[in-house]
Amino acid sequence: MRTQKIRSRMLSTTMIGGFAALAFAAPAIAQDAPQSAELGDVVVTGSRIPQSNLVTTSPVTQVTGEDIDSTGVTRIEDLISQLPQAFAAQNSTVSNGASGTATVSLRNLGSSRTLVLIDGRRMGYGAPLDDAADLNQIPEQLVERVEVLTGGASAVYGSDAVAGVVNFIMKKDFEGIQIDAQYGFYQHNNDYDGVGNVRAEIARRGVANPAQFQLPDDNVSDGESRSINVTMGVSTPDGRGNILAYAGYRNNNPILQRDRDYSACAIAAPNAGSGPTTFSCGGSGTSYPGRFTDFAGGFNSTLGAGRTFVPFNGDLHNYNYGPTNFYQRPDERYTLGAFGRYQVNDKAEVFAQLMFSDYQSNSQIAPSGNFFVTNSINCGNPLLGAQQRTTIGCTALDIANDTSRTMYIGRRNVEGGGRQDSMNYLAYRGVAGVRGELTPGWNYDIAAQYSRVALSRVYRNEFSITRLGRALDVVDVAGTPTCRSVVNGTDPNCVPYDVFIVGGLTQAALDYVQVPLVYTGETTQQVVTAAITGDTGWSMPTSSDTVKVAFGAEYRRDSLSSTPDVSFTSGDGAGQGGPTIGLAGSADVAELFGEIQIPLADNQPWAYSASIDAAYRRSEYDKFGTDTYKVGADWAPIEDVRFRTSYSRAVRAPNVIELFAAQGFNLFDIDFDPCDAVNRPVANGPVPASCIGGAAHQVTAGQSTSGNLDSPAGQYNQITGGNPNLNPEEADTFTLGVVFQPSFLPRFNLSIDYFDIQIDGAIQTIGAGNTLNLCYNSGDAAACSRISRNPANGALWVGSGFVQNLNNNIGGFETSGIDFNANYGIDLEDLGVMNAGSLQFSFVGTWLESLVTDSGTGTPDAVYDCTGFYGAFCGPTNPEWRHRARMTWLSPWDVDVSGTWRFYGEGEIGVLGPDGSLNNGGTRIDRYLDSINYFDLAATWQVMDNVTLRAGVNNVLDTDPPLSYGVGTTGNGNTYPQLYDARGRYFFFGITANF
User: Fold this and answer.
1) Is the pTM of this model over 0.85?
2) Cβ atoms of 602 and 676 closer than 8 Å
3) What is the DSSP letter of 89?
4) Closest among 990, 967, 25 to 982, alpha carbons compared
5) What's the per-residue H, E or C state across 273-311?
6) Rounded Cα gap, residues 736 and 606, in angstroms
7) Which residues pair with 753 in a beta bridge?
8) What is the DSSP string of 225-276?
9) Looking at residue 39, what is its pLDDT?
10) What digits encode the pLDDT tens for the residues 71-82?
11) Contacts with 479 (C-beta within 8 Å, 6 or more apart), sequence order
12) What whole-number distance in Å separates Cα of residue 703 and Cα of residue 8?
């Protein structure tokens, strides 16, 4: 009876604790489980051994299917990322640099270090562009619960389980028909009154340039979402089998940055025009109607009246690239699948899972154009006006001889519209196996799984560098401007690109210079697993429970291939930053694993219960082998208090992308070029002397003072790529916690868990920003050798300038903190309020003690702690404190109402100092991002036994996000929408009907 009591009590309190960990209240689990209920052993994330005690030695938290309904999410990653230990990586708010996938990063250690499972079996690569699992493949209405494990679990699941594991447990044994539908939309009042006074700046800029600077409507509604899901299930008459089939559809409309006042312009540091307390509207030097310059101080112009040039002024003429960017990408998804099982006999049950998804999303950013990718113009060009020729230094002799002069052109393709990256993913996943009993107490599970993701990607409205060059190389043929390539026959289709007068561009010219870029690829994963779990029958003299074990073998092969077209591979796309090269490769691993769980005591004077557990895995890859292990213990001196601890060694083997990706151009973010004397902040002192000289990493004194080294958009070129000689990362994880379940306060639960994760030999790049610091501030010759500036102008953002930033095993990461989870439920009758139902309170919070990056360079600034910081070195804000609290009223009238409070602590811009400090933001107005409070309301009403309605509002107060001009490409729309609710209030309405 005592064992049964433990199982019943632990199930109810631990499920409640799991809900508390998510700060959700699930009405379906509102009551304690009856003490007489039978409960079999359950497999919990983090072990293959069935557990009778759901309070495991490693902290595990849960989200339920009811939570998905009550929060109104149609994207499962939006729910997971609300956990204090989870950070969104790729999601629907990412536009520039979007892979089209949805990923999660536990402890902000990177999505590659978070292992994602479905029913305890790993998911494959999400895309040829992203090795992390794509949560878009998971049908949210089929999720029974999500279990999130803190810390390393490689000994149980293999590579990648470094920061933790997210395990999606799917519904099974369903009978009947369920139809679920939901509609939602965002609503926002444009009345931003926070730091930076951005509305006033947009209005000021709009006086001189109303086409690019417009305040949106005061009240906007957009981003509509629609979803419908159908689930059907039937069991065999004898109960030995069941099959579940499902189909779903989801559609989300886009949100443009122009429709939010805080993102309607790309903000920058205050300037003379905006005033010291107001953000300026920055932008890109690739502008409209264009910037024409030699980057050498000779001329720097834009178009005047007719075919003339006037001086270019960045404060007036930089292009506002914000409005056309998506704040929320549109997407459309179809899902289809089936789960089944059949018990063949007493010793064998066959099972299978088949899952399919068709997901399409479109990422839109500012228009393409000539990003200074052409560097000369012929003086005899008939498109040039007389004043324009004089401005660029053409003499009469130059015109007669058609001599070329240096001219870089930066002009946006506003006529063609934004660049659109359309991504279509077809994902297939199948699992088949057999499981059953070998002998009493011993069971087996043999399964094979195969997954495949096929990507078809089309990049539209891009310019061809080759065609731009031809279309600008124009000569006079009998009074008609004609491409030289037409005259000499190299390209008879060329049409002159007339950008030297406003309105001079024809549709024929646009059709000629614009080209689509096509990219296809696929990933596959094959896994075969055989496992045996068993009860040894042996027990310690002080325990009534017996020792249990699990052991087995696994083989896994991950492969990936991608095929870009010639426009990608040649680097001919003007807005791509360089070539995109295809890759192909695979990685194989064969593994042996084992686990043991040893109950030490129960009902002893020194322990109400106690146990230890351990796990080990040996993995053999092509070029190396790894050993991972885990030990854990729990001890309850009395029934009300339980202590738990665990230590694990985890690994992350290099994935195919990290091993085999070809070297190519990408972008990185820094606030300023350290060698730019004009735009370098005063607080950072003068330009380092090491900047000036004749080496490849240096600039001339004239280039330093030209003001042209600094990118107006804060984006610079880097070369990234794979390394086939990478070794696995190693991580050590330690957790220590206590769980309180006081008998004197029924239905109260509190857990406090400390975690510490340290990663060594990290697979990472040194970082382009770190390379610049090492070179110019520390005189590191190796770092300087990785910097190659454009020889014509010294820039790292124009033409051929770049910083080399390849994968390596170097440095590491470390994070530590404390998770707090609490839950309490009380009947209002106990407070003297009769027939009014009950209340449930839940809370989860995380105090972040450290989030340390070690770039591995060995210099004083190599190690820095991002706790409480954000920016180029730290990414999205890493609050010292995050929490979520919820109160739910479970009424006696089949209506449940809940309110949720979400809190994110403040962030400070991280500016790396020579000593590794980050608190060097000086007096910049975005030095601090204020702490944020969000409040959500939701209600469910069971109208009939088989029909439930739900509705809710997230971010009820329509709280504006904090803004910064330092978010770079890791943010979007001047903030971090993957962390903050940047889109406004979200209203949702849903219905579930069962038949």
Assistant:
1) yes
2) no
3) -
4) 967
5) CCCCCECEECCECCECCCEEECCCCCCEEEECCCCCEEE
6) 20
7) 737, 819
8) EEEEEEEEEEE-TTSSEEEEEEEEEEEE--EEGGGSGGGSS-EE---TTT-T
9) 35
10) 888 888 888 888
11) none
12) 74
